[in-house]
Task: structure prediction
Amino acid sequence: MHHVEKVPDVVFKTRVRDESVEGPNPFRWQDRTTQEIFGGKRVVVFSLPGAFTPTCSSTHLPRYEELYDEIKAQGVDEVICLSVNDAFVMFQWGKHQGAKNVFLLPDGNGEFTRKMGMLVDKSNLGFGMRSWRYSMVVNDGNIEKLFVEPGYSDNCPTDPFEVSDADTMLNYLKSAK
Result:
């Protein structure tokens, strides 16, 4: 498993609210590049296997949402949740979760995740290719710190959740000051 030093250069296909769009669904597609998202900023990213899945919904996302202000207070500009899901799924999940602070970033084609070396096969669950669970601090595109769950493998029967959690991240940020 190789670790990259910089976040990969990709274009994310996102949906953004646009009041000028007619009808009941005022959203349009917007491409967002790695440079736009990470350039000149210190960003916390946590990546998970899937929207609406149990651990992601019960603890992973809610705790980052809960500790958002504390994380920001450690010199972080944005907190991003990444998953290999399409923009529509990520939007509905965010709404369902009541996520107001964490930015949900869809890696629909898994390109960012693949280039991060974090793409795994979860065909045993009927998921296809998804992201391994990890978190990181990205400083102007450079990976300052990476927490990867143990046991990285295809068709892993378990879903480790020990080090990519919000509390571990907050402790790191406090100690790094």
About this structure: Residues 54-66 form the longest helix (13 residues). The chain is about 30% helix and 30% strand. The longest strand covers residues 11-17.
